[in-house]
Amino acid sequence: MYDKLACGLLYNNLYSSNRFFLFEESSDENYLKKWYSGGYLIVENGYLDWPVLIPPLKSYISVKELRWSKWVESIRKDVECLFGIQKKRFKVLQSGIMVHGVRVTDKIWVTCSALHNFLIDENGDEPWDNHMNVNSDYARNIHMIIPCTTDLNNRPIAINSLSRNEFRDKLINHFDILWKHGMVKWPSRSGLGNPPSL
Questions:
Q1: Is 36 exposed, middle or buried (0-12, 13-18, 19+ CB in 10 A)?
Q2: 127-134 CB contacts, 8 Å cutoff, 24+ apart
Q3: Fewer Cβ atoms within 10 A, N terminus or C terminus of the chain?
Q4: Beta partners for 31?
Protein backbone atom coordinates (compact mmCIF):
# COMPACT_ATOMS: atom_id res chain seq x y z
CA MET A 1 0.00 0.00 0.00
CA TYR A 2 2.80 2.47 0.89
CA ASP A 3 6.19 3.01 -0.71
CA LYS A 4 8.37 -0.08 -0.14
CA LEU A 5 11.52 1.92 0.54
CA ALA A 6 9.85 4.15 3.14
CA CYS A 7 8.19 1.11 4.80
CA GLY A 8 11.52 -0.72 4.79
CA LEU A 9 13.20 2.21 6.52
CA LEU A 10 10.43 2.51 9.10
CA TYR A 11 9.45 -1.09 9.84
CA ASN A 12 11.98 -3.55 8.42
CA ASN A 13 15.18 -1.87 9.60
CA LEU A 14 16.34 -1.33 6.03
CA TYR A 15 19.82 0.23 6.20
CA SER A 16 19.85 -0.36 9.95
CA SER A 17 23.61 -1.01 9.74
CA ASN A 18 24.13 2.48 8.28
CA ARG A 19 25.71 4.64 10.99
CA PHE A 20 26.18 8.40 10.94
CA PHE A 21 26.66 11.15 13.48
CA LEU A 22 25.00 14.47 14.11
CA PHE A 23 26.47 17.27 16.19
CA GLU A 24 24.46 18.53 19.16
CA GLU A 25 24.95 21.45 21.49
CA SER A 26 26.84 20.55 24.67
CA SER A 27 27.11 22.19 28.07
CA ASP A 28 30.84 22.87 27.63
CA GLU A 29 32.66 24.60 24.77
CA ASN A 30 32.61 21.47 22.60
CA TYR A 31 29.77 19.93 20.66
CA LEU A 32 28.49 16.44 21.32
CA LYS A 33 28.86 13.92 18.49
CA LYS A 34 25.85 11.57 18.67
CA TRP A 35 25.55 8.42 16.57
CA TYR A 36 22.42 7.32 14.72
CA SER A 37 21.49 4.35 12.58
CA GLY A 38 19.16 3.84 9.67
CA GLY A 39 18.26 5.99 6.71
CA TYR A 40 15.79 8.69 5.82
CA LEU A 41 14.32 10.30 2.72
CA ILE A 42 14.03 13.99 1.93
CA VAL A 43 10.44 14.53 0.78
CA GLU A 44 8.06 17.38 0.12
CA ASN A 45 5.27 18.25 2.52
CA GLY A 46 2.21 16.03 2.30
CA TYR A 47 3.92 12.73 3.09
CA LEU A 48 3.08 10.65 6.14
CA ASP A 49 4.36 11.85 9.50
CA TRP A 50 7.12 9.22 9.74
CA PRO A 51 10.60 9.87 11.17
CA VAL A 52 12.19 8.46 7.99
CA LEU A 53 10.34 10.95 5.72
CA ILE A 54 11.79 14.42 6.29
CA PRO A 55 10.14 17.41 4.58
CA PRO A 56 11.19 21.05 4.88
CA LEU A 57 9.28 23.11 7.42
CA LYS A 58 6.16 24.96 6.30
CA SER A 59 6.66 27.77 8.81
CA TYR A 60 9.79 28.89 10.62
CA ILE A 61 10.36 29.97 14.19
CA SER A 62 14.06 30.69 13.81
CA VAL A 63 16.62 31.62 11.17
CA LYS A 64 18.27 28.20 11.47
CA GLU A 65 14.96 26.52 10.57
CA LEU A 66 14.55 28.84 7.57
CA ARG A 67 18.12 28.14 6.41
CA TRP A 68 17.75 24.37 6.73
CA SER A 69 14.39 24.33 4.93
CA LYS A 70 15.72 26.42 2.04
CA TRP A 71 18.75 24.11 1.75
CA VAL A 72 16.54 20.99 1.66
CA GLU A 73 14.27 22.61 -0.93
CA SER A 74 17.33 23.50 -3.02
CA ILE A 75 18.52 19.88 -3.00
CA ARG A 76 15.06 18.64 -3.96
CA LYS A 77 14.93 21.13 -6.85
CA ASP A 78 18.29 19.83 -8.13
CA VAL A 79 16.88 16.31 -8.17
CA GLU A 80 13.83 17.52 -10.09
CA CYS A 81 16.17 19.31 -12.51
CA LEU A 82 17.98 16.02 -13.11
CA PHE A 83 14.65 14.39 -13.99
CA GLY A 84 14.08 17.15 -16.56
CA ILE A 85 17.56 16.69 -18.04
CA GLN A 86 17.01 12.94 -18.31
CA LYS A 87 13.62 13.40 -20.00
CA LYS A 88 15.14 15.85 -22.46
CA ARG A 89 18.08 13.59 -23.26
CA PHE A 90 16.27 10.23 -23.62
CA LYS A 91 13.20 9.87 -25.81
CA VAL A 92 11.98 6.82 -23.88
CA LEU A 93 11.40 9.08 -20.84
CA GLN A 94 9.73 11.96 -22.72
CA SER A 95 6.18 10.67 -23.05
CA GLY A 96 5.96 8.07 -20.33
CA ILE A 97 7.40 4.59 -20.32
CA MET A 98 5.18 2.28 -22.36
CA VAL A 99 6.02 -0.98 -20.61
CA HIS A 100 4.32 -2.96 -17.90
CA GLY A 101 5.91 -3.62 -14.55
CA VAL A 102 7.99 -1.76 -12.06
CA ARG A 103 11.13 -3.88 -12.64
CA VAL A 104 11.31 -3.09 -16.35
CA THR A 105 10.65 0.60 -15.64
CA ASP A 106 13.41 0.61 -13.00
CA LYS A 107 15.85 -0.99 -15.47
CA ILE A 108 15.04 1.67 -18.09
CA TRP A 109 15.64 4.46 -15.54
CA VAL A 110 18.91 2.93 -14.29
CA THR A 111 20.13 2.44 -17.87
CA CYS A 112 19.32 6.05 -18.79
CA SER A 113 21.08 7.27 -15.62
CA ALA A 114 24.17 5.17 -16.36
CA LEU A 115 24.30 6.47 -19.94
CA HIS A 116 23.80 10.04 -18.69
CA ASN A 117 26.73 9.68 -16.26
CA PHE A 118 28.87 8.07 -18.98
CA LEU A 119 28.16 10.98 -21.34
CA ILE A 120 29.08 13.50 -18.65
CA ASP A 121 32.35 11.66 -17.96
CA GLU A 122 33.19 11.41 -21.66
CA ASN A 123 32.00 14.79 -22.94
CA GLY A 124 32.29 16.91 -19.82
CA ASP A 125 29.40 18.92 -21.21
CA GLU A 126 27.48 19.19 -17.97
CA PRO A 127 28.63 21.64 -15.27
CA TRP A 128 28.55 19.03 -12.48
CA ASP A 129 32.33 18.83 -12.12
CA ASN A 130 32.56 20.88 -8.92
CA HIS A 131 30.94 18.25 -6.72
CA MET A 132 31.99 17.30 -3.21
CA ASN A 133 33.49 13.86 -2.78
CA VAL A 134 31.94 12.07 0.20
CA ASN A 135 35.33 10.56 1.03
CA SER A 136 37.06 13.92 0.96
CA ASP A 137 39.18 15.42 3.71
CA TYR A 138 36.09 17.45 4.63
CA ALA A 139 34.21 14.31 5.65
CA ARG A 140 37.19 12.63 7.32
CA ASN A 141 38.49 15.62 9.28
CA ILE A 142 35.29 17.36 10.33
CA HIS A 143 36.03 16.57 13.99
CA MET A 144 39.30 18.52 13.71
CA ILE A 145 37.47 21.63 12.52
CA ILE A 146 34.55 21.47 14.95
CA PRO A 147 35.57 20.84 18.57
CA CYS A 148 33.55 17.88 19.78
CA THR A 149 33.37 15.01 22.20
CA THR A 150 31.83 11.68 21.29
CA ASP A 151 28.74 10.52 23.13
CA LEU A 152 29.88 7.85 25.60
CA ASN A 153 26.79 5.81 24.82
CA ASN A 154 28.29 3.95 21.85
CA ARG A 155 24.96 2.47 20.73
CA PRO A 156 23.52 4.48 17.86
CA ILE A 157 19.97 5.75 18.14
CA ALA A 158 17.69 4.22 15.50
CA ILE A 159 16.00 6.93 13.44
CA ASN A 160 12.75 4.97 13.36
CA SER A 161 12.59 5.09 17.18
CA LEU A 162 12.21 8.90 17.14
CA SER A 163 9.31 11.09 16.06
CA ARG A 164 9.68 12.99 12.79
CA ASN A 165 9.84 16.32 14.62
CA GLU A 166 12.51 15.04 17.03
CA PHE A 167 14.72 13.78 14.21
CA ARG A 168 14.15 16.84 12.02
CA ASP A 169 15.13 19.09 14.96
CA LYS A 170 18.36 17.12 15.32
CA LEU A 171 19.07 17.56 11.60
CA ILE A 172 18.36 21.29 11.84
CA ASN A 173 20.68 21.72 14.85
CA HIS A 174 23.44 19.72 13.14
CA PHE A 175 23.05 21.85 10.01
CA ASP A 176 23.19 25.03 12.12
CA ILE A 177 26.43 23.95 13.78
CA LEU A 178 27.99 23.23 10.37
CA TRP A 179 26.69 26.61 9.12
CA LYS A 180 28.29 28.47 12.04
CA HIS A 181 31.65 26.87 11.21
CA GLY A 182 31.42 27.75 7.50
CA MET A 183 31.08 24.14 6.43
CA VAL A 184 27.83 24.34 4.45
CA LYS A 185 28.08 24.32 0.68
CA TRP A 186 24.94 25.33 -1.19
CA PRO A 187 23.85 22.94 -3.95
CA SER A 188 23.43 24.52 -7.36
CA ARG A 189 23.41 23.45 -11.01
CA SER A 190 27.03 24.50 -11.33
CA GLY A 191 28.24 22.53 -8.32
CA LEU A 192 28.49 23.31 -4.64
CA GLY A 193 28.88 27.00 -4.00
CA ASN A 194 28.81 29.49 -1.20
CA PRO A 195 25.52 29.71 0.68
CA PRO A 196 23.27 32.72 0.30
CA SER A 197 23.12 35.17 3.17
CA LEU A 198 20.04 34.11 5.13
A1: buried
A2: 127/189, 127/190, 127/191, 128/191, 129/191, 130/190, 130/191, 130/192, 130/193, 131/191, 131/192, 132/185, 132/192
A3: N
A4: 25, 148
CA 108 to chain CA centroid, Å, is: 24
Distance CA 67, CA 170 (A): 14
DSSP state of 159: G
Beta bridge partners of 42: 54
